[in-house]
Specification:
By secondary structure, this protein is an alpha/beta fold. It contains six helices and five strands, in the order E-H-E-H-H-E-H-H-E-H-E. The protein has one domain: DsrEFH-like (Hypothetical Protein Ychn, Chain: A). Helix 2 packs across helix 3. The longest helix is centred in the first third of the chain and has 16 residues.
Length: 110
């Protein structure tokens, strides 16, 4: 069984996004996994920019390490700079997600 977790937050639903972020923080803090990565994709990217509570929880989760947002989506929405200001690394996430899964990270999608 893998001891590494990849959390993909793709939802526009703020309650689901907050639950995913809470799980990410708790999984890291309680050492339920050796490593936890977080990727924001699609509708969640707009949610982070528009919802202060979600943005705040995302920044609290940054203790986990580097978190990523999809560049293709953020450029389409015109929010790449806003996401970067919040501390996210804005890149093409397809290769990153694939890399983590190939390295044995278990994906969990919210």
């Amino acid at each position: 069984m893998s001891k590494r977790l990849l959390i993909v937050i793709a939802t526009a639903d703020r309650e689901k996004a907050l639950a995913g972020l809470m799980y990410a923080k708790n999984a890291w803090a309680a050492a339920w996994f050796e490593d936890v990565k977080v990727v924001f994709f699609g509708p969640s990217e707009k949610l982070i920019v528009r919802d202060d509570e979600v943005a705040n929880e995302m920044q609290k989760a940054s203790v986990i390490g580097e978190s990523f947002a999809c560049k293709a989506i953020s450029e389409k929405e015109g929010i790449s700079e806003d996401l970067e200001k919040l501390g996210l690394t804005v890149v093409g996430v397809g290769p990153i997600v694939s890399k983590f899964i190939n390295e044995g990270y278990v994906p969990m999608v919210w």
